[in-house]
Amino acid sequence: MPTPYITGYADPLSVKPGETIRFMLSAEGANTAEATIVRLVHGDEHPEGPGFVEQEVATDIVREVALEHQPTQVGSFLEVDDPQARLALAGDFTLHAWIWPTRTAAGPQALLSRYDAAARTGYALTINADGCLAFLSGDGKVAAEVALELPLTERVWYFVAAAFDASSGRVRLYQRAVVNAWNSRLAPLVERRYDASGSFPVVAAPGVSGSGFLVAGRYDTAPPSGCRVGQCFNGKIDRPGMVAAALDEDALTRFAAGERPGEHEIIAFWDTTAGYRDDGIDDVVYDVGPHALHGHGRNRPIRAMTGYNWRGRDDCFRLDPSQYGGVYFHADAITDCAWRPSVTWRVPEDLRSGVYALRLRGNGLEDHVTFFVRPRQATAKVAMLMPTASYLAYANERFVLDGPMVAVVTGHTLMLSDTDYLLGQHPEFGSSTYDHYADGDGVCYSSSRRPILNLRPRHRMAATGVPWQFPADLSIIWWLEQAGFDYDVITDTDLDGEGLALLEPYSVVINGTHSEYYSERMMDATDAYIAGGGRVMYLGANGYYWVVGFRPQEPWCMEVRKLNAGSRAWQAAPGEHYMASDGNRGGLWRDRGRPPQKSMGVGFTSEGMDECKPYRRLPDSHDPRVAWALDGVGEVFGDNGLALGGAAGLELDRYDLAWGTPPDTFLLAASEGHSDNYPHVGEEVLFNFPGLGGTQDFQVRGDVTLFAARNGGAVFSTGSIAWGQALPWNGGDNDIARVTRNVLTAFLERKQLF
């Protein structure tokens, strides 16, 4: 029996006073809910901390909200513009494409279709339930399918076609494997095994379907279900098209070899290599035929992927777009639930900047739909930069549900919550960039236009039982409130969109606990801010690590491509290392010549989830020039916290001059005593050998550093994710809070450093 729930998402995720925000809500088991705007202050319910803290906000928002279940269209595909129904054909035609299927046993999948399943009219080139190339035709009364007998093989490129002869009522199905760098150079084996052709009578000539034309799906159900497209394809499609003739086998063979049937009328030819720019590509697949029947991507089909003719030499679409015609579709992709707004609210002009949520309560259920309010212009000297890019990267992470290595990596037995079970029941909520699509390909897109169940204040990571990302960052918010510092909230979304101009009004910018994912615009803005005299408090670890990309016009969707280095759940295929969103190479920032040590003084060195440890002061901390930073703390500090009992752990960063730590950086303290569940990070291990664990490798530690930059800029780094979660321990009266206050006060006072 499905678990009852209330959930939703806010659009946009970051909003200013005076702007309008929409809340898209859905429910099972509740028809109404009490809606209240609350300010979120603390999310960790650890008994040694302040507990869950929220503050109700008096607003004019509707108090009782009507709820219903809102369906979600899952699967990526192309919808084709065809206002004059030029693709509703009654005469001869041939459908053709190069395809690279990845789940031939997943049930029927449509490649090219103008078919309405409810009306049983139209035509479709498909892969049938047996994994064979097939043609489906319906005249409104009868629907018939004909198919080849030789199944398609997964991850092999084919040229496929269906040629319909209206006068004879027959269709020719054709498939030929491509001999290329990806498939094999062993041409005879490929050709003998994978080529097939056949001519079949069609029981029902295609009727004129009222549905549109789709690539990688077909219209499956009728409104008002809202989810009209089904049988979505898994794999790549390259340069599909249609001609107004029933091509014979010789013509199809020439077509498969790259010739164009110039003597026949081209109805449509979707050139999947067109539209590339140095800064990326959008979701429009252009028809270069006479009618401009362009295709529009839904749920972000993946572009900048190798095509059937990739030669294995050029590794970026910018070098030769003609080799990058592959468009990768997934039947379980989701980047936009496209729900209707249940609540629309204009944010009051006088609402204070902060972290907020629409709290929903109904029929014993509760949810918090999180959003962020940034100021129209700076109202404080301190900015709390909420790492929304990293929230997107981890959004709805599912690997804890089926990843066999998770318990080994973390050193914990998994502790699943109601949220984890709910996520397991609802694949339509999408996945994180740590997960895989059903065909095994890594999820490279993550979006805020869907419910994100771990973007909630009370969420605890199943792998460790401690808050992670957003609820952990609320510990810093609580401390700023408790310590009496005025601050504004800004987000990565804002930083990517506005760059340096967003940061310049602030004297100090504070990071969250895990600012792991950064775009080029974010990196450039951060470096420029520090070089221009800004001061950053990096209260986390494993930050500035993965390269991500956003399209400026679509800040709600983020792209990441994991490459062959770094702690990763998947890696991009050869030739597919550059992001479609902005043209940047993915992977680690250190592999782009910008390791985090250059900007923050420290960089990722280890992760472990069994326990957290304290720090020990080092000689630099007693230097009169910087002794103020650790004033009032002992030689060992940080031996308590809400995250596994200490301030140093979960993930750790270290000082390293070889990786770019500024030479005049002060190394104030380092953690010690970590277990062998903290291994030295993989990207720095050229040869594996015993002795790389925390008990043996001196590089497994978290370092506290401080350095001065040009023009009065400065950076203080803590080298640990757990630092922020130590701030609320003992009501905020602790040595980690004391150090943080020392540094923030000095930074605000523009204390002359060194």
Estimate the strand proportion. 25-35%
- Work out the count of structural domains: 3
On the 0 to 100 scale, the average pLDDT is 92
Largest sheet: 16 strands, antiparallel
Category from helices, strands and their pairing: alpha+beta
Low-confidence stretches: none
Rg estimate, integer Å: 28 Å
How many strand segments? 42
Number of separate helices: 13
User: What is the helix fraction of residues, given as a range?
Assistant: 10-25%
C-alpha termini separation: 65 Å
Shape, per Cα inertia axes: elongated
Short description:
With 754 residues, the chain is an alpha+beta fold.
Word description of this protein:
The chain has 13 helices and 42 strands. It has a 16-stranded antiparallel β-sheet that branches. It has a nine-stranded mixed β-sheet with strand order 30-28-31-33-42-41-40-37-38. Strands 2, 4, 5, 6, 26 and 27 form a six-stranded mixed β-sheet that branches. Helix 8 crosses helix 10. The mean pLDDT is 92. It has 754 residues and is of the alpha+beta class. The protein has three domains: 5-72 and 340-373, Immunoglobulin-like (Sandwich), CATH 2.60.40; 77-329, Jelly Rolls, CATH 2.60.120.200; 382-748, no CATH class. The N and C termini lie far apart (65 Å). 13% of the residues lie in helices and 31% in strands.
Which keywords apply here?
754 residues, 13 helices, alpha+beta, 31% strand, single chain, Immunoglobulin-like, Jelly Rolls, elongated
Question: How are the elements arranged and paired?
Answer:
Layout: E1 5-11, E2 14-15, E3 20-28, E4 32-42, E5 53-56, E6 64-66, E7 77-80, E8 93-101, E9 109-116, E10 121-127, E11 133-139, E12 143-147, E13 158-165, E14 170-177, H1 187-194, E15 196-201, E16 214-215, E17 218-219, E18 229-230, E19 235-243, H2 249-256, E20 266-271, E21 284-287, E22 295-298, E23 302-305, E24 326-329, E25 343-346, E26 354-362, E27 365-373, E28 382-386, H3 388-393, H4 399-402, H5 406-410, H6 418-425, E29 445-447, H7 470-483, E30 488-491, H8 492-498, H9 500-503, E31 508-511, E32 517-519, H10 520-531, E33 535-538, E34 546-551, E35 554-560, H11 596-600, E36 602-613, E37 615-617, E38 636-637, E39 648-655, E40 666-671, E41 703-708, E42 714-717, H12 723-726, H13 735-748
Parallel strand pairs: 2-27, 28-30, 28-31, 31-33, 32-34, 33-42
Antiparallel strand pairs: 1-3, 3-25, 4-5, 4-6, 4-26, 7-16, 7-22, 8-13, 8-19, 9-10, 9-16, 10-11, 11-12, 13-14, 14-15, 17-18, 19-20, 19-24, 20-21, 21-22, 23-24, 26-27, 29-35, 34-35, 36-39, 37-38, 37-40, 40-41, 41-42
Helix pairs in contact: 8-10
